[in-house]
Specification:
Layout lengths: L3 H16 L3 H4 L9 H5 L6 E5 L2 E11 L3 E11 L5 E4 L3 E12 L1 H9 L3 E10 L5 E14 L1
Antiparallel strand pairs: 1-2, 2-3, 3-4, 3-5, 5-7, 6-7
Amino acid sequence: MFSCKAKYLIALTAAAMLLMASPAVFGGGFGDLRDPFKTIKSIRADSWHIVGKNIVVEGNVFVPTPDVDIFADKAVINIENEDIEATGDIRFVRWYHTSGSVTPERLAELERGEDVKVTVTGVSGDLWGERQIAVKADGIGDSLQ
């Protein structure tokens, strides 16, 4: 159907479209890049160097953003216009965030999940002894490689 190169180009185009989506879609887009020192502390790579307004990171690159984590062999991050150009073996991991109330049994199920981080934010009960636990959950959603 599609060659390997065509699939790669389609995936790269889709990823670029995801990254350029409006803040309404991704809950803030790359807002953390507006404060470069906050984001720079979270970026991981084997080597770094700065060229003008660009940060060039190479080797086992990890660039976290509010809703998408980017893994690549190399990335060039432009601090001025918030562009990220990744090359090599690229993988995008989308995170989801939700909150609500669950039963103790459901909380135990969520905590056993491998791709979910659960934080208890409160506990409530009713006259009959039924407990509800308020939780916030963060988990891995789609992954595009």
